Amino acid sequence: MSKDITSMIGKKISKPVKAATKSVIESDIIKKKLDTDILFNFDKHWSTKGTYLIKNIPKVIEFDSKLVKVAAFDLDGTLINTKSGNKFATSASDWKWFNEYVIPMLKKLQDYLIVIFTNQGGVVSKPDSKSYIKFIARLNLIAKELETEQIDIRHNLFVYASPKKPAKETTIHDYHAKMRKPNTGMWEELKSDLLGYEVDLEHSFFIGDAAGRKSDFSNSDLLFAKHIGIEFKTPEELFKDNIETSSDQNEAA
Predict the structure, then answer these.
(1) Which among 123, 165, 236, 253 has the fewest CB atoms less than 10 Å away?
(2) Name one Pfam family in it (predicted).
């Protein structure tokens, strides 16, 4: 079984302190970086497979080691919530981070491949559909915010989404069911996209809010991680300020 996530990641997360206002020069540098890295990279990499998968992966797949550590996340209710308080986003900008510890944690995961696996039953996999346009616009805004926070996502952010199955579509092999969590089709797609690199299962993990708790709508995220064979935690367990180092845990024991 994989190691505990907190021991893999390490140091304690502290509540972030608001940074001082950046100078005009620093702002210009960040703006230029966003224009280059986001407008001409992340938002240009969206693609679909049939009607059963939406994804965004870098054009260049390159890592320092053949074994890749994956920090995988569900999207809604895990990395983000809606600003409006509605169950579903009303617009591309209707989102906020799950809490104030998301960004500090993601900054600690710079040596991980960040992967989002999300079921999007309200999104139609057609580039001209309103739901598709709103979905990718929301992810583009999230990517832009990550870059603003100086989190390098140019080669380290992959997104896989399982969209709505068209009502009239019938196929011999139900690819939609395969891609939808807790089934592992999106994970298999990731492994294929790694082009010869392998996932370090022992040091990889998945975070999701569908954990089978009384208040949860399902246990699909928990089962997804179990089927893959990686560590699982809820966002409440990961995004908090009392993460200890493995040495701290050993001393406490």
Answers:
(1) 253
(2) PNK3P
Say if residues 99 and 107 touch (Cβ distance below 8 Å).
Answer: no
CA distance 76 to 159: 13
Q: Give 114-144 as a DSSP string.
A: EEEEEE-TT--S-TTSHHHHHHHHHHHHHHH
pLDDT score of 221:
98
Q: pTM, whole model, 2 decimals?
A: 0.83
Question: Which helix (H) or strand (E) covers residue 108, if one does?
Answer: helix 102-108
| Measured distance CA(138)–CA(95) in Å, rounded | 8
| Mean pLDDT per 10-residue section of the chain, whose length is 253 residues | 66 56 55 49 91 93 92 98 94 97 95 97 93 96 94 90 84 81 98 95 98 95 98 96 48 44
Distance CA 73, CA 109 (A): 12
